[in-house]
């Protein structure tokens, strides 16, 4: 991303990363994220949250763990399940995360560096297949982490997981709102209210 930052030095790194995330989701077929921009970059590591604040993949009580992580950020069960749906993209590499297979029929030829285990067969397409695959549990080449399975095991999460498996439009709407909310947490904006590129 450095070449883009070099070409447009007035954009902050914080906005550039968020613009990249929103653009990637949309380009992969997902919803347009109602992103707010104007983030101010931090000037030192002491201004950043401590490392280790992301969810663990295999805690002993996955639903409780997801709530512990996301409730402290002001997110609710619907937002937790919607954000989990981002696993429709990408793959896990056991040498980096300790989870997944070294390669599967879906990842052995890339694109990019081959290998890893994806949550969906078309792991570069943003859709609701993540929820469908977890619900059906039919393909051993697809990854289901304990925190993924919890979405259909926990009664409160299951309401949303079932809804998103059946209704991609509802998933897209809720995901877009949750993504935008998460991307603004803890950020300082200039101007204070931020701005939209659509304004």
Task: Tell me what the structure shows.
By secondary structure, this protein is mainly α. It has a domain of 132 residues: Peroxidase, domain 2 (Orthogonal Bundle), CATH 1.10.420. Helix content is 44%, strand content 2%. The chain contains nine helices and two strands, in the order H-H-H-H-E-H-E-H-H-H-H. The protein is globular and about 50 Å long.
DSSP strand count = 2
What is the level 1 CATH name of the domain at 51-182? Mainly Alpha
Q: How much strand content do the residues show?
A: under 5%
Question: Roughly how many Å apart are the termini?
Answer: 25 Å
Main β-sheet, in a few words? 2 strands, antiparallel
CATH topology of the domain at 51-182: Peroxidase, domain 2
Keywords: Calcium, Hydrogen peroxide, Iron, Metal-binding, Oxidoreductase, Peroxidase, Potassium
GO molecular function: heme binding; L-ascorbate peroxidase activity; metal ion binding
Enzyme class: oxidoreductase
Domain Plant heme peroxidase family profile: 11-199
Layout of helices and strands, plus pairs?
Elements (H helix, E strand, L loop, with lengths): L1 H6 L5 H15 L34 H10 L5 H8 L6 E2 L1 H4 L19 E2 L10 H8 L9 H8 L1 H12 L1 H17 L15
Antiparallel strand pairs: 1-2
Helix pairs in contact: 3-7, 4-8, 4-9, 6-8, 7-8, 8-9
């Amino acid at each position: 991303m450095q070449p883009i930052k070099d070409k447009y030095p007035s954009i902050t790194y914080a906005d550039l990363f968020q613009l990249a995330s929103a653009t990637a989701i949309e380009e992969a077929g997902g919803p347009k994220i109602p992103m707010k921009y104007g983030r101010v970059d931090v000037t030192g590591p002491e201004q950043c949250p401590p490392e280790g604040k992301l969810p663990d993949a295999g805690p002993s009580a996955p639903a409780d763990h997801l709530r512990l992580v996301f409730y402290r950020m002001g997110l609710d069960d619907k937002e937790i399940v919607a954000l989990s749906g981002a696993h429709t993209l990408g793959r896990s590499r056991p040498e980096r995360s300790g989870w997944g297979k070294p390669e599967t029929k879906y990842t052995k030829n890339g694109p990019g560096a081959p290998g890893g285990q994806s949550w969906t067969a078309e792991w570069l397409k943003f859709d609701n297949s993540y929820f469908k695959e977890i619900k059906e549990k039919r393909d051993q080449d697809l990854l289901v982490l304990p925190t993924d399975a919890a979405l259909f095991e926990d009664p409160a999460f299951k309401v949303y997981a079932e809804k998103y498996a059946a209704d991609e439009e509802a998933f897209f709407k809720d995901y877009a709102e949750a993504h935008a909310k998460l991307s603004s947490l803890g950020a300082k904006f200039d101007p204070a209210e931020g701005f939209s590129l659509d304004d």
